[in-house]
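Before relying on records like the one below, remember that each one covers exactly one chain. Contacts with other chains, cofactors or solvent are not represented anywhere in the record.
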Amino acid sequence: MAKSKRVNKILLISLFFVSAVIFLVIFSWNTSPLYTFFGYDSSIFKAMGKFMADGLTPYKDFFDHKGPIIILIEWLGFGITKSDYTLLLLQAIFLTVALYGVYKIAKIFLSTKKSVALAFVSLIICSIFLSGQAGNIVEEWILPFIVWSSYFTVRFFAYKEKEHNYKYSILYGVTFAFAAFTRLTNAIPVLIFAGIIFIFLIKQKAWKNIFKNILAFVVGALIITIPIFIWFAVNGAFNDMIYATFVFNYKYMSAKSLKADSLRIFKHTARYLLPFIFGMIMQIAMILKKKDVWLSVALLVQSIVAVAMYVTGALFPHYLYVWVPTIAITLILVVKDYGALKWFARGYVALLVVVFIGTNYIAFRNYESYLKGLAVDYEKKCKDVYSHMPDKKAKILCVDSNPYFYIVTDTKPSYKYFHTQDLHSYYDEKTKAEWTKLIKSNKARYMVVSRMGEYPMYSYLRKNYFGIYENDRLALIEKY
């Protein structure tokens, strides 16, 4: 019997893995062998993985405001092999762990068949926020941690335990730290669950259990934090890492807040927010019908926060990817109580299907009509410019052109700020001062500049560099 269960588990995980690979091949344009696509953010991430593999130190030798865990993942997935296939494999492993976690959540309430089916439904939900975002996004790497943290929360409330097993809180702490060193806001779904558990334990007056859970949470966070601190301290980049990951990121997110216009919010509501809004209706219905009240309250809070953060911040759909478990768990609970919530369940499934079809139709239509040709063309233009560089060993830098150039030409930036330099300077005076000092040092013999628009630093470059070659996308300039 035990052997049979083990075999079934291996087969199920294998099924999830194959499904994850197929899903990513279709929707992760940045790493799929089916598409020629580079994606701006993905190019940054891949380039950082490449730079680290080339011996450069993050934040000291090259700058981005994403946390160090993203750089580590890209180093493992792309930098070492310089291949999208290994990155795709890593994505598939992470997604498989997340799918199995959704299955385990559903299995708390439902049969094996229904649990497997709902795990696959979670792929539909994932595609809504991944399609058109092209894959290799920050949120993909944090998803399995959020799913499994959610599993232990759901289990706690479903089994009506009076005390919360402090060992679960170790994972909450790990998830929080993992998110903090990627993008701190990605930890909010888990923090909401932890907050609801905390309120429940206060109501139970389980003071000793509260203390154990707080301590376990801290231990979990330190499991991630201490190795990162030690590594960057040893490599002389501790202050740079802290500033980029937390200080700069705070300024960046603050500047992005409350900028969205009402028309864009309306368009995004139709494509991305309806699953959350309709989910709120079901969560309220479950609360009124006294079905899994504590859990439903937690899910309702998550949904409200997800929508509020999205419409008051930068409208990037991939930000919503971390909230996939919120929708999936809501659907699981509705299926569990199908008899009482039959019409809600039917309506929710119908809505998800409509949003799935509409979102993917728009995304793939855009790819075919515009993005596909753009990607092929840009790679050719990068190689074309590099072929006209007289001294291939000289120092080079891309200024406001896509970091994909470094990958295509297998080059390294000569300055710390290797992409969107003027944009980074816009958000932070310290970065602006450092970038200005670097650019005026004239250490880079060659610059590759964008032909797509005018940037503040171009006025300086025109006075100190002269053009030696250009095509319709990029220009190669050399210092006087």
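DSSP finds 18 helices and four strands in the chain.
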